[in-house]
Amino acid sequence: MDILHGEWPKIKAFMDGILGEWGIFALIVLATVSAFALGRLSALEARKPLISLTEAPKTASAAPILLGGSVIASRGGSTYYYPWCAGAAKIAVQNQRVFASIEDAKKAGLKPAKNCTGLQ
Q: Can you name the residues that pair with 80 across neighbouring β-strands?
């Protein structure tokens, strides 16, 4: 502790000398770099595309959810899907088998689709 008390005036004099000559310059450089960095961040934020429901693809059509059934399977397939799963949308309407419950689909020998969330 005595070493620190003896060296403290030298350290303080050194720091006063550095800050006296370079302190204002360092503050100006720091403020300039900070302003530039914030400007770059705002430019990146401005480049993000705005999301609008009016710009939704016109070719996308909502697949109708069939009333009266909770799961759908293909006539030649071995798995069943919820009506909103992607796999159910790929089944042609004339090839769809609609089941009132998951239990009915299981009784018919079908398994849950692995890519349909919530069936596992």
A: 73, 112
The whole-angstrom separation of Cα 57 and Cα 30 is 47
Q: Are residues 74 and 120 in the same domain?
A: yes
Three-state secondary-structure class, residue 74: strand
Cβ atoms 114, 120 nearer than 8 A: yes
How far is Cα 95 from Cα 111, in angstroms, rounded to an integer? 17
Same structural domain for residues 72 and 115? yes
Q: How wide is the angle at C-alpha 95 spanned by C-alphas 115 and 67, nearest 5°?
A: 75
115 in the same domain as 64: yes
**pLDDT per position as a tens digit, 13-50:** 877 777 777 777 877 888 899 988 888 877 766 666 66
State the pTM of this model.
Answer: 0.45
Q: What CA–CA distance (Å, rounded) separates 114 from 82?
A: 11
